[in-house]
Design a protein that fits this description.
This protein is an alpha+beta fold. It has 2 domains: about 70 residues, no CATH class; about 160 residues, Immunoglobulin-like. Helix content is about 40%, strand content about 20%. It is elongated and about 90 Å long.
């Protein structure tokens, strides 16, 4: 009975997984490539598109080698002990209570392993936290449930980015639930400082391919940075539970050449110059919180 139930559960799970893969492959949305957004069925990290993400993946791979080595070593030791010191193979057990060399080894080796982990870990944390001199500054403001963006160096440029719904223009041009009506544009190979805050609850601004993730906290101005090394459209989502529509708060960042970025700036200055909607909505949200 148990075996029959087990086989039915396995069959059901395989059917669900197969249906999921089929629907992903037959989706009307463009297939993701694992670079700009996760590919269907992808395991592990997306391909890195910034130095910080490259360093993050390298650190992760180092940890995996260390963890795998420790797991294999411990497994072999356990097998050796079970075979060597079981009652049948060793009817007269040893009464040894101390072994100075062994005790020194099992204390020193873990310390060395932690040092090997700590050095790249602290270096990565430092590189993430210390922002180089920025070429571009962007301000991202979290709202329930959309993002507002400003370019502090250009007062005219401020806009809201809300999720595209089925039937909206451009909906089929992006992976499902990741398209927005407006998006951030930045130049390739330039340091971009992102100032992040929120108007209502805690959100989180995240682009996995850049290795950028930071909380957007009301009343607090946090900062992060990235340097995109590959052109293209990159996707992310709010990564902090922020309410009922948390899963419908995507982020889009387009990385373009310097010439294309300068041309976009000129267009954006005109396009958003008379757009007071982001500022008015943020003001209304702030007022409702204070009241």
């Amino acid at each position: 009975m148990f075996k029959k139930t087990y086989l039915m559960v396995v069959a059901l799970m395989m059917t669900i997984i197969g249906t999921g893969f089929a629907s992903a492959q037959n989706s009307v949305h463009p297939a993701s490539d694992g670079i700009h957004s996760a590919a269907p069925g992808q395991l592990g990290f997306m391909q890195a598109a910034s130095p910080i993400m490259e360093e993050t993946i390298a650190f992760h791979n180092l940890l995996m080698w260390i963890i795998t080595g420790i797991t294999i070593f411990v497994t072999l030791i356990l097998l050796y002990i079970m075979l060597k010191f079981n009652a049948k193979a060793n009817p007269v057990p040893s009464k040894t209570t101390h072994n100075t060399v062994l005790e020194i080894v099992w204390t020193a080796v873990p310390v060395l392993i932690l040092v090997v982990i700590a050095i790249p870990s602290f270096r990565l944390l430092y590189n993430q936290d210390v922002i180089p001199e920025a070429d571009v500054t962007i301000k991202a403001i979290g709202n329930q449930w959309y993002w507002s963006y400003e370019y502090p160096d250009y007062e005219e440029i401020a806009f809201d980015a809300t999720i595209l719904n089925e039937g909206d223009e451009g909906y089929n041009d992006h992976p499902r639930l990741l398209g927005t009506d407006e998006h951030v544009v930045v130049p390739v190979n330039k340091v971009v400082r992102v100032q992040v805050t929120a108007n209502d609850v805690i959100h989180a601004w995240t682009i996995p391919a850049f290795g950028a993730k930071i909380d957007a906290v009301p009343g607090v101005l946090n900062e992060t940075w990235f340097k995109a090394t590959k052109e293209g459209m990159y996707y992310g989502q709010c990564s902090e539970l922020c309410g009922i529509n948390h899963g419908f708060m995507p982020i889009m960042v387009e990385v373009v050449s310097q010439a294309e970025y300068e041309a976009w700036l000129e267009e954006a200055k005109v396009k958003y110059a008379s757009n007071d909607a982001p500022r008015l909505r943020q003001y209304a949200s702030a007022q409702s919180i204070t009241e």
